[in-house]
Amino acid sequence: MAKVTVDGTTFEVEDNKRLVLALEEHGIDILHRCGGIASCTTCRVKFRSGEPTQMTQAERNRLRISGLLGIARLSCQILCQQDMEVEVLMRVSNTEYESAGQRPQPEITPEPKWINRPY
């Protein structure tokens, strides 16, 4: 099991759970407006430690288009496989939205093509 730390609170997460779902299930009000398909960047996080060395091609493409490559990661495209500490960059409570968005599926979508992090 991986340990995830957010705002000084650490919780255990089953291996290979999507980070966005782990955060939400532990009471973090993270946005995911596109439903976890790597098309909106509202689920972005910043790693303090434990950043995975791989990312999906979809995540890299979206971050590059958005000018966020090397600055943030998309929690909808990250599997919990190791201990990590993250900062959630966009929360429902800090926006005009009433909900986080459509709940992401348990599996990464679109079908992941894994690549090494390009930075």
Can you list the strand order of the major beta sheet? 2-1-8-4-6
Q: Radius of gyration in whole Å, from Cα?
A: 13 Å
CATH topology label:
Ubiquitin-like (UB roll)
> What is the CATH level 1 assignment?
Alpha Beta
- Assembly state here? single chain
CATH homologous superfamily grouping: Beta-grasp domain
* Strand content range: 25-35%
Could you tell me how far the N terminus lies from the C terminus, measured between alpha carbons in angstroms? Answer: 27 Å
Q: What is the total domain count?
A: 1
**Mean of residue pLDDT?**
97
Give the name of the CATH architecture.
Roll
Structure explained in plain terms:
- By secondary structure, this protein is α+β, with helices and mostly antiparallel strands.
- It has a single domain, classed as Ubiquitin-like (UB roll) (Roll), CATH 3.10.20.30.
- 14% of the residues lie in helices and 28% in strands.
- The chain has a five-stranded mixed β-sheet with strand order 2-1-8-4-6, covered by helices on one side. It has a two-stranded antiparallel sheet with strand order 3-7.
- The longest helix is centred in the middle third of the chain and has 10 residues.
- It is globular.
- It starts with a strand and ends with a strand.
- The mean pLDDT is 97.
